[in-house]
Specification:
Layout (H helix, E strand, L loop, with lengths): L6 H15 L13 E5 L11 H19 L3 E5 L1 E2 L4 H13 L9 H15 L1 H9 L10 E2 L3 H16 L3 E11 L4 E3 L4 E15 L2 E5 L10 E4 L13 E6 L2 E9 L11 E4 L5 H10 L25 H14 L3 E15 L7 E10 L2 H12 L4 E3 L3 H10 L4 E2 L1 E2 L9 E4 L8 E2 L8 E3 L3 E2 L1 H5 L2 H11 L5 H5 L2 E7 L3 H16 L4 E7 L2 E2 L16 H8 L1 H9 L8 E2 L2 H23 L9 H17 L3 H25 L5 H15 L4 H8 L18
Parallel strand pairs: 1-2, 3-4, 9-11, 15-23, 22-23, 24-25
Antiparallel strand pairs: 5-6, 5-14, 7-8, 7-13, 9-12, 10-11, 14-16, 17-21, 18-19, 18-20
Helix pairs in contact: 1-21, 2-16, 6-12, 9-14, 15-16, 16-17, 17-19, 17-20, 18-19, 18-20, 19-20, 20-21
Length: 684
């Protein structure tokens, strides 16, 4: 053995050995074994690896390698995601740099351009995951736009429609005027911001609003029905002086009005405020849209037409002051606004006909499954959070106004009302045109566990679905619990009658060594590829998982990574000593003590505590095996044969955490019956 362990000399060669040996494919289970499956959370096909990916790859690979060594038939099915708006947004930024826009191309051309762009970059994340040691079965790799996946996702939508769980309706939806698409309520980021509260004169009233530019869409003013100040006006029509001249407006009484807000009178703009939209439905008010889907005021606003919202607000305020219709302005008003999670643009609530899924029947199934403990959530307090989401979920808007994704299998007869539609997989004939909207990317992702296994069955592995579904574990970050985990439970139970996974392990966010969130602006982002090049994959893996707890954030910095590189050196040096030591007759109770260590680490992994198991194996190897037993061997108290057996056991215990260095050592040990460590049996 060389004097020093150099990861760059071993890692790629070892990974090739594993792949060539067929170790990643599910093999026949041992007599005591059983099927075990993890479906990989599909990273964006277009994105390089980031530290969050490195975390999920590490944790999942630990469980996969451990279960494989137990003798189970193990499948880790990998895949990548088309990622919908995420990918189209990145591609549009690329177009902008070239002086072009999505509007320069027809749908088919734009889709093909994005497809080619994704294909060019799709291998990046996969090759980087391999560098991390991901022992996934790459022969089963899936992409969310594979033909068979698209067909299965489409089938689910058709089934939902046939079961009366899909409907089309005009609702006020969350629209990002920059991304040019609607989002569901879950995807809107809420931020507290300081704004101005404008007190406007409306005939006999003064009312407060943060959005004076939407006044052209007002179709009523509202007061609380029990507010004594205004009861005499309820039901009356009043004449109001406005920027476009005098107009008449109805006064309604509705309990959604807070008498303590402003003056207790609010303007009702059904086309641009969710509460107002609901109030408008209750009172039969007109929905008058004054902001277009381009984020500019429209033809209903007279001279303000064409102005962007913030510019229009300034002009409207200025003109209201000139006409004496502005009473006062409170410039220190704190309120919450919705912004696009993707680009940070303020979300506009706009009226749009969309397709929705009725979620209540689906959420009830999940709540029942949780009650019956058919799925267990690992991550402190997150089961309670999941139940809260399930009980308070709005119907899911699945329509997206983008080209990149799976197109809705909805068809309209040419020249007919768009309210009339047909839901079928293929066109009903030449007289029909297809809906242009695509599915929310989370709609296909929500079906990922069962569509991947069913597609695998179609591709010549007919037993995969029966053998591996429900899957054993879903491992992902707690931050996508409502976006993805909840929806997978909903869709999996609906489509298959079974939960899609038996356990959910939620890892926390990876923060820098000061505990701060990683961001490009702070300059504290950790590039996994650079870390691997400098310290080796094992050092990164161990630093990510060591001492972590499900559902809690963890801190990782160069100091911790360097410490884990020292562990790989320690493993190498310990092996060099054992291989080269002079034999002697000494012995000890090492086997009995070792058995206790094996039991402890096995229990921690069975209890879904990989962070604690990593800490235990690190401490026991470093302090018990190296500091104590190797020192005793130097004094002639332990024979080489016993110490070699102890080393083999520790290599097995360490392998799920630091697979490269342990395999590199294993291949250099004398008389190795089990040729590859990855295929060896877990110690008992």
């Amino acid at each position: 053995m060389d004097k020093q362990y150099k990861p760059e000399l071993f890692e790629d060669k070892i990974y090739q050995k594993w792949e060539k040996s067929g170790a990643f494919a599910p093999r026949k289970a041992s007599p005591r074994g059983k099927p075990y499956c993890i479906i990989m959370p599909p990273p964006n096909a277009n994105d390089p690896l980031h530290v969050g990916h490195a975390m999920f790859v590490t944790v999942e690979d630990i469980f996969i390698r451990y279960q494989r060594m137990l003798g189970n038939s193990v499948l880790w099915l990998p895949g990548t995601d088309h990622a919908g708006i995420e990918t189209q947004y990145v591609f549009e930024k690329k177009l902008k740099k070239e002086g072009k826009s999505r509007f320069d191309f027809d749908r088919k051309t734009l889709y093909k351009m994005i497809w080619d762009y994704v294909q060019e970059n799709s291998g990046v994340a996969i090759s980087q995951m391999k560098k991390l040691g991901a022992s996934a079965d790459w022969s089963r790799q899936k992409f969310t736009l594979d033909k068979d996946i698209v067909e299965l996702v489409t089938d689910t939508f058709i089934k939902l429609y046939q079961d009366d769980l899909v409907y089309k309706d005009l609702k006020l939806i969350n629209f990002c005027t920059k991304c040019g698409t609607a989002f569901s309520n879950l995807e809107v980021r809420h931020e507290e911001k300081k704004a101005s509260l404008y007190y406007l004169k409306y005939g006999p009233f003064t009312l407060a609003t943060t959005r004076p530019e939407t006044k052209f869409g007002d179709t009523a003013v509202a007061v609380h029905p029990k507010d004594k100040r205004y009861q005499k006006y309820i039901g009356r029509e009043i004449e109001v002086e406005g920027l476009l001249g005098k107009f008449k407006i109805k006064v309604i009484g509705d309990e959604y009005v807070d008498p303590a807000f402003g003056t207790g009178v609010v303007k009702v703009t059904p086309a641009h405020d969710q509460n107002d939209f609901e109030a408008g439905k209750r009172h039969g008010l007109e929905v008058k849209q004054v902001i277009g889907f381009d984020g500019r005021l429209n033809e209903n606003t007279g001279p303000y037409q064409g102005l962007k919202v913030l510019m229009a607000r300034e002009k409207v305020v200025e003109d209201l002051k000139k006409k004496g219709l502005m009473e006062k302005i409170d410039e220190n008003y704190l309120h919450t606004v919705g912004v696009c999670y993707r680009c940070g643009t303020m979300i506009e609530p706009l009226p749009l006909s969309q397709f929705f899924i009725k979620v209540k029947p689906l959420t009830e199934m999940v709540l029942q499954a949780l009650k019956e403990k058919k799925v267990k959530i690992y991550g402190s307090g997150h089961e309670k959070i999941l139940k809260h989401w399930l009980k308070n979920l709005y119907d899911w808007n699945i329509s997206r106004q983008i080209v990149w994704g799976i197109r809705l299998p909805v068809w309209y007869k040419k020249g007919s009302d768009k309210a009339e539609f047909v839901v079928v997989k293929k066109s009903p004939g030449e007289d029909y045109i297809q809906e242009t909207d695509t599915f929310d990317t989370w709609f296909s992702s929500a079906q990922w566990p069962f569509v991947t296994l069913r597609a695998s069955g179609r591709a010549g592995r007919p037993g995969d679905f029966k053998r591996f579904y429900p899957t054993s574990l879903m491992e992902t970050g707690y931050d996508i619990l409502p976006f993805w985990v909840m929806r997978m439970l909903m869709m999996g139970l609906y489509a298959t009658g079974k939960v899609p996974f038996e356990k959910v392990y939620l890892h926390g966010l990876v923060r820098d060594e000061k505990g701060q969130k990683m961001s490009k602006s702070k300059g504290n982002v950790m590039n996994p590829v650079e870390v691997i090049e400098k310290y080796g994959a094992d050092a990164l893996r161990m630093s990510l998982v060591m001492s972590t707890t499900a559902g809690q954030d963890s801190a990782v910095g160069e100091g911790k990574i360097r410490g884990m590189r020292n562990l790989t050196n320690k493993i190498w040096n310990a092996a060099r000593f054992v291989v080269n030591m002079k034999d002697n007759e000494g012995d000890s109770k090492i086997k009995k003590e070792l058995k206790k260590i094996v039991s402890k680490i096995t229990k921690q992994l069975e209890d879904m505590k990989p962070g604690l198991a990593a800490e235990t194996v690190y401490n026991e190897f470093w302090h018990w095996f190296c500091d104590q037993k190797i020192e005793e061997a130097k004094k002639g108290k332990i024979s080489q044969a016993v110490l070699l057996e102890g080393l083999r056991t520790f290599l097995k215990l360490l392998h799920p955490f630091v697979p490269f260095v342990t395999e590199a050592v294993w291949l250099q040990l004398p008389k190795t019956e089990e040729k590859l460590l990855i295929n060896s049996q877990w110690p008992r």
